Amino acid sequence: MASKTDILMIDPMPESFNEQLGAPFRLHQFTSLEALGPLAERIEGVSTGGGSGLPRQIMDALPNLKVISVNGVGIDKIDLDECRRRSIRLATAQGVLTEDVADMAMGLMLDAMRGISASDRFVRANRWGRDPVPNAWSLKGKKIGIAGFGAIGKALAQRAAAFDTTIAYFSSRQQTDTPQYPFYPELRVLAEWADVLVLCVSGGARSYHMIDEDILQALGPDGVLINVARGSVVDEEALLQALQDGTIRGAGLDVFAEEPQVPEAFFSLDNVVLQAHRASATVETRHAMGRLVFDNLAAFFQGKPLLTPVL
Ligand code: 8YV
Question: Do 106 and 250 share a domain, yes or no?
């Protein structure tokens, strides 16, 4: 019987996924570089999450690494040049999480506008009947600016349109398949126009701190920011300040700069909805993602083409 291929898991994967992988692969959960020891030489594949990626020190410690399979779509924490230099193949779980991430953006948008979480806290604190309840804001008729118009941005546009909103987008280039939505080549102009600005861009150097004090000012005191992209896209200090002093009205955040750390100053703000990077975290989607991580690894080691290749 052929010997099993050693796979290093950077993020833990669900048990069912481990069982699937268990047949052709020997799985190892990464704990620390020191703990890797002689195993490092045997690792030929890595599975990881979009948020964790593959830190360069770990990649450098794996001389026989051949393939990385990402349980997500983000590749901002993987050194692509180094992958190319070492001919390491890369696959993501693209295509299976689009709708859930768009749903989360929609949910955060509704919550931030209608104050659902804030109202939940109000009821739980037994304040109903004792304190006045402020009215929230309607989503109907609002202008939704979407920054990043790939699959997730487009799925969000479809959903937002059903709420009687007007949609426009910012992207690195105008999209040919969505002529119904106006294209804004400048983010600042989109932010000025929008009531709600939703971030669906890829993470990485190009989008780093794309949302700064200037853009927040352009969004303005009636504006709401939603982030289902990456924490790195937003200057978090500037955002905190903007939420505290009313530069913008509110925010809905699924992602943060230093996950899982969230600046404590957010906790006392009622005009921000916080999530623990949950946009793709449904039973159905996480199952489909895990399956794809497995299928990509299996395909690679059987000498077949990757199902959802990036490199
Ligand atoms: C996941 C993500 O939460 O797709 C991505 O890039 O960040 C998320 O879908 C993550 O990959 C799970 O580890």
Answer: yes
